[in-house]
Amino acid sequence: MSLKLPFIEAEITDQYLYDENPRPWIIGFSGGKDSTMLLQVVWRALMKIPAELRKRDIYVVCNDTLVENPKIVSFINRTLKLLQKSATQQGLPISVHRTTPRLEDTFWVNLIGKGYPAPTNSFRWCTERLKINPTTRFIQEKISEAGEAIILLGTRSDESQSRARSMKRHELKGQRLRKHILPNAFVYAPIRDIETGELWQYMMQVSPPWGGTHKELVTLYRNANSGDCPLVIDETTPSCGNSRFGCWVCTVVSRDKSMEGLIGNGDDWMEPLMELRNKILVERSNRDSREKRRRTESAYKEDDDNTWGPYTPKIRAEFLTMLLEAQKEIQDSQGDMMELITHQELVAIQLTWFRDSVFTPKVADIYNRIYNTNLAMPRHVEKLYREEELLREACADQPEHVELIQEMLLLQRNRTLLRNKRGLQQDLEKHLESFLVRRIKGTVHA
């Protein structure tokens, strides 16, 4: 490691000064061990460059999926504030940026609002919406401003054989950079040859140039692994770098070992999160918790016992109830206003429920019952609910017609949103015929 570090910093310095028209550097920062070491070696190299030659902008980009482990979020928030403050004080061309998914793409709007089933390996809808798209938009914005950009990542060949093969495959022969999937973007991995044991040795011996220590980061890894974090001196010594920090709602894995480790090491306030995450995992495979019809661009397909659609309104409401109860319990016990779901997401969920003709229960009612408040939805949202009440009053003698009218309106509304009204008449007639069949079968909800 003592031989590698001066070489890595010299290489970074050379690469930084190479361009006549400096392409901006975008450093992907997650707060984990790899991205922390990457940022540290870049920072140290930058400090050795005369101030008048630091002409290349460096953007430290941290993507927040809004469902990250709260323990990690708290740590990263403090780190990002310290990074920006120290960069300014030291006169470095470093700025810190946080990316988040669009409101319509957030985990809760999709899972609770639209009823999307929890992600699986074959249907991992969360990765693109929560992680790839937000950061891609930021990178494309910088490329449009500068023509090209270089993305610095903390990927290391030692992490996995597949990662090593991928890094080798995309290398540009004779150059430090490799191609990125985005046009006019290149990837630079300065610590690609650092082994995990060397990384931890460096982190525990060298303090971050932005201030503080790495003790909290090391402790997080140790606790999440439910074991200690020894000084790695050879390949036979287990490293504390195997823990995978990420979204606390992740259902792609059967168990969230990092959260289990943190809870086992004293963070028992996260137990409600574990309970909700496990319920989401179980209900994904519960046939009674899923609709027998799927969402489509126009409306719903015919009922089919073999079709697994979105979560039922009842289950979506249960998820929201457990989420808000967990949020309040954490806020009460931790003495802060940590948000698991934003108010904007709550409004978006209610709008989505209205569009799906789900009017009971209301999001505000669930929130008010848990928080003992009188929160009201925005006027345009309440107007939709009032329209539904009037519709039910008008159909008091034949309440089953409420469902029919709502479904017909949904058909028309979605056709309008698609700007394609061709075939609307046929769709309405077909849906009316389907409604009559369901009424005969007794499956129409009054």
TrEMBL record:
Stretches for region Disordered = 286-306
A Pfam family that this protein carries is PAPS_reduct
From the UniProt record, which GO molecular function terms apply? catalytic activity
Biased composition regions of type Basic and acidic residues, renumbered to the chain: 286-301
Q: Where is the Phosphoadenosine phosphosulphate reductase domain?
A: 27-207
Q: Which PANTHER family match?
A: PHOSPHOADENOSINE PHOSPHOSULFATE REDUCTASE (PTHR43196:SF2), SULFATE ADENYLYLTRANSFERASE SUBUNIT 2 (PTHR43196)
Protein name as annotated: DNA sulfur modification protein DndC
**Source species of the chain:** Spirosoma fluviale
